[in-house]
Amino acid sequence: MEKIFYQGKELLPPRQHLALKAIFGTEKGKGLLAAFLRDVLSMDVEKAEDVTLLNNEIFEEYDGNKQIAPDLRVRTSNNDYINIEIHLAEREDIIPRSMYYHANLVASQESWKKGNPDRSRAISLFILDFILFPEEEVWYNEYKFGCEDGEELTDLSMISFLELPKVRKACQGKEALSASECWGLFLSARDGEVMEMLKKQ
Length: 201
Hints:
By secondary structure, this protein is an alpha/beta fold.
């Protein structure tokens, strides 16, 4: 398994599933999670108390032989529901897979289970260690329900993709990074030099 050597320690890269859950998926990591949601997804969360970690249920079979579950599922103090899923290997079915995860997120909301949907938002973030949209230079994309003329139907549902290889390219040679760029570079880190650079930001 790939490792990062930093300050004399051997660490898992942040983009590894176990590392991602260790960083964000514990009570101690909720402050970092709140900052990540605020900086990357522009969520209205300021502190650890604004996020609740939910049990990551194992969904029904997706492809007939494999059970899947989100890496992280979160509810905010505004009653927004968020899935965070990371994929290291390129896969052709990432779009239908993302729709499957997102549909389960929507259906898991308590108000939907009671047959009385409210204004809770459902947001799915897919962090990819490969390029999904080669024709675009931007490394973060959001998709919502709308019509062909661009008019938005609702803000209650959103699927977003963060492409780590594009973050690394976009940040090359930059002295000052935005908060979202710092998070993207952190998640894409492959060596201790990146960690040391981020420490100075």
